[in-house]
Amino acid sequence: MRLLLPDLEAMQVLGSAIAVALQRGDVVALSGGLGAGKTTLARAVIAALGHQGEVPSPSFSIIETYDSDLLRIPLVHADFYRLNHPREADEIGLDDYRDGAALIAEWPENAGGFAHEAACLSIHLETADSGRIAIAQAGPDWLGREPWT
Ligand SMILES: Nc1ncnc2c1ncn2[C@@H]1O[C@H](COP(=O)(O)OP(=O)(O)O)[C@@H](O)[C@H]1O
Ligand SMILES: [Mg+2]
Q1: What is the DSSP code string of 21-56?
Q2: What total of structural domains would you count in the chain?
Q3: Can you tell me whether residue 74 is helix, strand or coil?
């Protein structure tokens, strides 16, 4: 699925649609280069889930967790840019963080990738003449709840 995201408003709309459909155990894998819009889309999802306040980029901390009662479901926001090897995702305890939560992963390939998981929604973001485009692929668990129409 190819989605046109001409401006920040379009990112909010897509983020809200993802948040409505999102379930525990899901992964939203956001790929694309620096500045592609991964954190922007992650912020839109986290806000639409009910989070109030700042959403710091996890580019330094690698993992930020959101488990307040305000959120419809707990969420883990990760940025694997700084990982040198996928094994480091295990070493920081990613599986424990993910338990009972949904995961939004920036630079998913640096953690070994998640597309093999049935509950993975892969979204590749690219800059375009007008804003961004997204190439989205939904794993089988997303059948019938894809965040687009
Ligand atoms: N659809 C869009 N159209 C125009 N600008 C966008 C869009 N999405 C994001 N941006 C802008 O791109 C910049 C980089 O976004 P960011 O989400 O930090 O990228 P990444 O996390 O992929 O490095 C931000 O200034 C953001 O406002
Ligand atoms: Mg980012």
Answers
A1: H--TT-EEEEE-STTSSHHHHHHHHHHHTT--S---
A2: 1
A3: coil
Of the listed ligands, the closest to the CA of 132 is 1
pLDDT of residue 149: 80
Mutate to test the pocket of ligand 1, among 34, 39, 40 (most ligand atoms within 8 A of CB): 40
Q: Which atom of ligand 1 is nearest to the CA of 32?
A: 22
What confidence tens digit (pLDDT) does each residue in 46-79 have? 999 999 999 999 999 999 999 999 999 999 999 9
Asked whether residue 147 is domain-assigned, the answer is no
In the numeric block, the tokens 């597309």 are attached to: 115
Ligand 1 atom at minimal distance to the Cα of residue 130: 3
The domain spanning residue 127 has which CATH number? 3.40.50.300
Q: Would you say residue 9 lies in a domain?
A: yes
The helix or strand, by DSSP H or E, that contains position 137, with its residue range, turns out to be strand 132-138
Does residue 110 lie within any of the structural domains?
A: yes
- Ligand closest in space to the Cα of 77: 2
